[in-house]
TrEMBL record:
Residues 96-360, 698-987 form the ABC transmembrane type-1 domain. CDD domains: ABC_6TM_MRP4_D1_like, ABC_6TM_MRP4_D2_like, ABCC_MRP_domain1, ABCC_MRP_domain2. This is Cystic fibrosis transmembrane conductance regulator. It comes from Oncorhynchus mykiss. Belongs to the ABC transporter superfamily. ABCC family. CFTR transporter (TC 3.A.1.202) subfamily. Pfam families: ABC_membrane, ABC_tran. The keyword Translocase applies. It catalyses: leukotriene C4(in) + ATP + H2O = leukotriene C4(out) + ADP + phosphate + H(+); ATP + H2O = ADP + phosphate + H(+); ATP + H2O + xenobioticSide 1 = ADP + phosphate + xenobioticSide 2; taurochenodeoxycholate(in) + glutathione(in) + ATP + H2O = taurochenodeoxycholate(out) + glutathione(out) + ADP + phosphate + H(+). Signal peptide: none annotated. Keywords: ATP-binding, Cell membrane, Chloride, Chloride channel, Endoplasmic reticulum, Endosome, Glycoprotein, Ion channel, Ion transport, Isomerase, Lipid transport, Membrane, Nucleotide-binding, Phosphoprotein, Repeat, Translocase, Transmembrane, Transmembrane helix, Transport. GO terms for biological process: lipid transport. Its EC number is 5.6.1.6, 7.6.2.2, 7.6.2.3. Interacts (via PDZ-binding motif) with SNX27 (via PDZ domain); this interaction accelerates MRP4 internalization.
Length: 1294
């Protein structure tokens, strides 16, 4: 990372700036960066390197030291440790010093109105001949201008330093949270979730950035209020107490608004979480939802949650509107009450008194009504976050065990286990716990060996370095090579050997960048099989002593499985101890030792021949359904998806991988956004032009009333001054009479204008929030409906994260941030226009210097926004890796710990944090760079106004001078805030654009058409493919080519083929997930002519990856509520799940965990089978449904299909040939074409055929069993056909 202009001054200039904290340096050292940003797009290399004292590791370890000390001290004193105490101890000194800046700033804010009052007094007592008074007035004018300039400097230096302190606290806390996450025990992981940990890192730590800004105002606020009260007492006497009383009342009101808002926000957050979780399930399971035609119930579910969410958002928006309106009107109410009391007490008003009071109230109002309540609010929010973080930091950690040898030891690596008893959760052993329950003994045994599962009793000794290939393949974002090497040095020969052994050589050739291909979000680039092989290759490449392999063969087809077993497990690893979990019975003979587990107990152990001799028929023990889930070699159910067809995968994944990696950069705006485009986007958002018309009218009325109220006060003071000057009027009869103003008239008009300001102000805020929130609701609904109706291809090309980002971040912006920012911007924009208009009405000549100022401002804004937008983009894109690294680390926690890679992952996390700190630091300093220049321009404007009044002293009145100057002074801070809000609104309009983009997606065919099939269709289940070609997209490769086939009624057809043959594509064509070419008929009805729901509801599918949704078991089985309780229980009985559901707390009404994670994969697959049983359709498609389940569940599924779907046409896609060998016919596909289609036994007679070769690859014993089964099926079919023909003959004879 280099300084853009001079690489050698990389961090020196920053350090010099921070040490001097001088404004000239502050505004100059960033200029080279802005020049580059104006010419071209900024990249990560343009960022300044993070300062050593801001480094993640340094900050994190310092805070960790303090925390460890506090934990030890608390343990001795028998009290809970206090994280707040640790933070104060670590950061109080540098933070306390920054209070000086705030004090100086607030003192000047109090002194400035005094100078202003003295200047106005000169005009009140104007004497053209008194030159001393004039010089004095010039001095006061200079005082007003100088105080404006000093205010700008101190304000921005304070804000920069406190925000940097907040950044340090956040970075240190993130380091600690990640470090803790890497050490969490399995029991602790059950008490938290990935989502909660990510939430700590994304939301809770951000409170440190916010609280540091306001904290000093807790002591500065009361001091400033006391000083202002003293000055006001001197100026207007006891009347000031009335105004201060209003201010004091406003403060708790604002605090109450804040509390109510927090209450609504927490309720909204829970509903938003619920909606996003549902959306996550919808997007993840969209293929299943479409195949089941379940779009409508899910649409109703999301709309229901969204409706509740919007009602809470609307309430909190109204609160926010009232809060903003009361803040906007506060100064008007205070001044009105003060001067009403003042004149009613018999005093006469003067311009100097009026505008000194107005300015003093303005100075204290911001502190008392905004900063002080914000400090209390942010402090309470931070305390909650600190408590949450503390609870996380106190979770149990895993006990680290050392498995290595001592230097002098020369031992054989081994694992010794005796009388071992382990519990996942000793406190609360439930049948459906979130961590893997103990009835999956095989994974639990490996967990115990790894040290992840604490053992209660018994002996477990491990001698040697362990390595582990997890059951669920884990890959982290990075290249394939970095995933395999996993921190080890690259040895080309060894690396090539591992690639070949793990059957990855061919895949590397097919991928665009070979092994340097970047793996996207959760391995989006790779198929399930490829992920499993990369996962295995990682374990093999490590030079370990003992290899724990948790079911690595189930995610690959038979051919690749055999290659992995022979070349890898029994080849490259042949001299190492290996503990293999597997379902593949054909590999048992090669095992040195077989361990059969059942329900957590060892039921048999020995070599293959020993177990056979012992009389234990363990192969049938594995298969018999009544024996329960068990398997050889420590076997478990696999949760990894099998490799999909390459044609679909490679085509989809290559595009998605590139996009997913660049997602953050791709979706953010590049070019400048203009007000014209902003207006267009506002039109997109708002529902009608009437809304915009009403808003424009209200805005005009508010601003007119706002200015007129102050102008009337100035006019009143002017009239009073004229009377004072003219003094007493002598009547002709000699009596002196003092003329007085009509108090009722002036006060009445003043009260009317104040009332109008209040009414229009509140109406504007509420109407604006109402319009913008309704627009957000409308856009969400349009986007969701568009997403539901778009073809599946869209979800293959776009990663889940990108789609969910629209529903979470972008809709979040539209719901909460955009309305508030937009209302704030409009309010400030109109006030700035008002200030300029008032100044121009007093001194028309001011428009001459104002013109170049506006030109400079417009250029400066454009110049700044070019760089600012890039800095914002860099901040956003450098934040993403921090979260994705945390998320992927938590998914692969066992692997990371098994490989002893915690320190390396911690260093990577720190590097990502440092990269984000670079961009965040840049964001802080660029914001200040711009703000300093804007406040500088405001200081010039104040100077021109102040000295302009003095130069035109003969033509202006005191009231007009007071009005113009008090307004000009308010520009400080407000102007730069308004400009930043305008940029913020422009940036947020990008979210509107992104949402609108998703409301215009391509739509699939209609759900219902005028051509409706008969209600009883299909009555037979005859499927005909007539010259069908299929491609997933118009520009994608053709994956089914000119296919002609007929599936007869009630026929059971197996569909086989190598990876990429087009098996799953055939199902996609049948369900019209993309529109096929050619014709598909079901019982004579052309499927392309009927609606998608009419088609999809009439076919049942048991998918490869079983999908359950959050909700009750009843909703998962019957979302349309079409079936009775009896039907549902019967369906569960059929699939042997009735007892499982009856054990649930609320039986059928029990709400399942996210994605049904409290069920095993086998149980989830049985729920999918129960859905098919309930639908009672004539056509059933089984898409590799038993590839991921144990033999018992496989057997149960096959038996249920044979019994319950005897009258149905069943198409089964399978990797396991034993599941389809008893089919009536088998369709063999090769490269999208039919290679063969006949009875299994007939196909096995052709020794050159693909099917025969596939059978041979299963192993000799399995091949013989398959041939025998095929022969039986053939003889049964022959007998059936003979009996059918005999019965026909007898009928003919009769």
């Amino acid at each position: 990372m280099h300084c853009p202009a001079h690489p050698e001054c990389n961090t020196t200039c920053i350090e010099l700036f921070i040490s001097t904290s001088s404004l000239p340096f502050f505004v100059s050292w960033l200029n080279p960066l802005f020049r580059i940003g104006y010419k071209r797009r900024l990249e990560e290399d343009d960022m300044y390197k993070v300062l050593p004292e801001d480094g993640s590791e340094r900050l994190g370890e310092e805070l960790q030291r303090h925390w460890d000390h506090e934990v030890q001290k608390a343990a001795k004193e028998l009290r809970p440790p206090k994280l707040t105490k640790v933070l104060i101890k670590c950061y109080w000194k540098p933070y306390a010093v920054l209070g000086i800046f705030t004090l100086i700033e607030e003192v000047i804010k109090v002194i400035q109105p005094v100078f202003l009052g003295k200047l106005i007094q000169y005009f009140e007592n104007y004497d053209p001949d008194n030159m001393d008074a004039l010089y004095e007035a010039f001095g006061y004018a200079a005082g007003v201008c100088l105080s404006t300039l000093i205010l700008a400097i101190t304000h921005h230096l304070y804000f920069f330093h406190v925000q940097r302190t907040g950044m340090k606290m956040r970075v240190a806390m993130c380091h600690m949270i990640y470090k803790k996450a890497l050490c969490l025990s399995s029991a602790a992981m059950g008490k938290t979730t990935t989502g909660q940990i990510v939430n700590l890192l994304s939301n809770d730590v951000n409170k440190f950035d916010e609280v540091t800004i306001f904290l000093h105002f807790l002591w500065v606020g009361p001091l400033q209020a006391a000083a202002v009260l003293g000055l006001l007492w001197v100026e207007i006497g006891p009347s000031c107490l009335a105004g201060m009383a209003v201010l004091v009342i406003l403060m708790p009101t604002q605090t109450m608004f804040g509390r109510l808002f927090s209450k609504f926000r927490s309720k909204t957050a829970a509903l938003t979480d619920n909606r996003i979780r549902t959306m996550n399930e919808v997007v993840s399971g969209i293929r299943i939802i479409k195949m089941y035609a379940w779009e409508k119930p899910f649409s109703a579910l999301v709309n229901d949650v969204r409706r509740k969410e919007i009602s809470k958002i609307m309430s909190s928006s109204y609160l926010r509107g009232l809060n903003m309106a009361s803040f906007f009107a506060a100064s008007k109410i205070i001044v009105f009450i003060t001067f009403t009391v003042y004149v009613l007490l018999g005093n006469t008003i003067s311009a100097s008194r009026v505008f000194v009071a107005v300015s003093l109230y303005s100075a204290v109002r911001l502190t008392v009504t905004l900063f002080f309540p914000s400090a209390i609010e942010k402090l309470s929010e931070t305390r909650i976050s600190v408590r949450r973080i503390k609870n996380f930091l106190l979770l149990d950690e895993i006990v680290k065990s050392e498995h290595g040898f001592l230097q002098e030891e020369k031992q054989e690596p081994n694992v010794e286990i005796q009388d071992l008893i382990c519990y996942w959760d000793t406190v609360n052993v439930q049948p459906l716990s979130p961590v893997p329950p103990s009835n999956f003994p095989q994974s639990s045994l490996l967990s115990a060996i790894l040290g992840e599962l604490p053992h209660d009793k018994g002996v477990l000794k491990v001698k040697g370095q362990l390595t582990y290939a997890s059951q669920q393949p884990w890959v982290f974002p990075g290249t394939i090579r970095s995933n395999i090497l996993f921190g080890k040095a690259l040895h080309p020969q060894k690396y090539e050997k591992v690639l070949r052994a793990c059957a990855l050589k061919r895949d590397m050739e097919l991928l665009p960048d070979g092994d340097l291909t970047v793996i996207g979000d959760r391995g989006a680039t790779l198929s399930g099989g490829q992920k499993a092989r990369v996962n295995l290759a990682r374990a093999v490449y490590q030079d370990a002593d003992i290899y724990l392999l948790d079911d690595p063969l189930s995610a690959v087809d038979a051919e690749v499985g055999r290659h992995l077993f022979e070349q890898c497990i029994c080849g490259i690893l042949k001299n190492k101890p290996r503990i293999l979990v597997t379902h593949q019975l054909q590999y048992l003979q090669a095992a040195n030792q077989i361990l059969v587990l059942k329900e957590g107990h060892m039921v048999a152990r020995g070599t293959y021949s020993e177990l056979q001799r012992s009389g234990v028929d363990f192969t049938s023990l594995l298969k018999r359904e009544e024996e329960g889930p068990q398997a050889p070699g420590v076997e478990t159910e696999c949760r990894s998806p099998c490799s999909r067809t390459l044609s679909q995968n490679s085509e989809v994944s290559h595009t998605s991988s590139i996009r997913s990696v660049k997602d953050g950069t791709e979706q953010l705006p590049v070019g400048p956004a203009h007000f014209r485009s902003m207006w267009k986007k506002l039109n997109l958002m708002t529902t009608s032009l009437n809304d915009i018309g009403l808003l424009t009218y209200l805005c005009f009325c508010v601003q007119a009333a706002y200015i007129l109220q102050d102008w009337w006060l100035a006019y009143w003071a002017g009239e009073q001054e004229k009377l004072n000057v003219n003094g007493t009027v002598t009547i002709q009869n000699g009596v002196n009479v003092t003329e007085q103003l009509n108090l009722d008239f002036y006060l009445g008009i003043y009260a009317g204008l104040t009332g109008a300001t209040l009414i229009f102000g509140f109406a504007r805020s509420l109407v604006m929030f109402n319009v913008l929130v309704k627009a957000a609701q409308s856009l969400h609904n349009r986007m969701f409906n568009s997403i539901l109706r778009t073809p599946v291809r869209f979800f293959d090309v776009n990663p889940i994260g990108r789609v969910l980002n629209r529903f979470s971040k972008d809709i979040g912006q539209l719901d909460a941030a955009l309305p508030w920012t937009f209302v704030d911007f409009i309010q400030i924009f109109l006030q700035i226009i008002g200030v300029v208009a008032v100044a121009a009405s007093v001194i028309p000549w001011i428009l001459i210097p104002l013109a170049p100022l506006i030109i400079v401002f417009l250029f400066l804004r454009r110049y700044f926004l070019q760089t600012s937008r890039d800095v914002k983009r860099l901040e956003s894109t450098t934040r993403s890796p921090v979260f994705s690294h945390l998320s992927s680390s938590l998914q692969g926690l066992w692997t990371i710990r098994a490989f002893r890679a915690e320190e390396r992952f911690q260093n990577t996390f720190d590097a990502y944090q440092d990269l984000h700190s670079e961009s965040w630091f840049l964001f802080l300093v660029t914001s200040r760079w711009f703000a300093v220049r804007l406040d500088g321009m405001c200081a010039v404007f104040v100077t021109i106004t102040a000295f302009g009044c003095l130069l035109l002293r003969d033509q202006v009145e005191a009231g007009s001078v007071g009005l113009a100057l008090s307004y000009a002074v308010t520009l400080m801070g407000m102007f730069q805030w308004g400009v930043r809000q305008s940029a913020e609104v422009e940036n947020m309009m990008t979210s509107v654009e992104r949402v609108v983009e998703y409301t215009e997606l391509e739509s699939e065919a209609p759900w219902e058409t005028q051509m409706r099939p008969p209600p009883e269709w299909p009555s037979q289940g005859l499927i005909t493919f007539d010259r069908v070609s299929f491609s997933y997209s118009s520009d994608g490769p053709v994956v089914l080519k000119d296919m002609k086939a007929m599936f007869r009624p009630k026929e059971k057809v197996g569909i086989v083929g190598r990876t990429g043959a087009g098996k799953s594509s055939l199902v996609s064509a049948l369900f019209r997930l993309a529109e096929p070419e050619g014709r598909i008929y079901i019982d004579g009805v052309l499927t392309s002519e009927i609606g998608l729901h009419d088609l999809r509801q009439k076919m049942s599918i048991i998918p490869q990856d079983p999908v359950l949704f959050t909700g009750t078991m009843r909703k998962n089985l019957d979302p349309f509520s079409q079936h009775t309780d009896e039907d549902l229980w019967n369906a569960l009985q059929e699939v042997q799940l009735k007892s499982v559901v009856e054990e649930l707390p609320n039986k059928m009404e029990t709400v399942l965990a996210e994605s049904g994670s409290n069920f095993s994969v086998g149980q989830r697959q049985l729920v999918c089978l129960a859905r098919a049983v309930l639908r009672k359709n004539r056509i059933l498609i089984i898409d590799e449904a038993t590839a991921n389940v144990d033999p018992r569940t496989d057997e149960l599924i096959q038996k249920t299909i044979r019994d319950k779907f005897r009258e149905c046409t069943v198409l089964t896609i399978a990797h396991r040939l034993n599941t389809i060998i008893d089919s009536d016919r088998i369709l063999v596909l090769d490269a999208g074409q039919i290679h063969a289609y006949d009875e299994p036994y007939t196909l096995l007679q052709n020794h050159d055929g693909i099917f025969f070769k596939m059978v041979q690859q299963t192993g000799r014993q399995e091949a013989v069993a398959l041939l025998q089964s095929a022969k039986q099926v053939s003889s049964t079919l022959t007998q059936q056909s003979m009996s059918t023909s005999l019965s026909h003959c007898s009928l003919a004879v009769k």
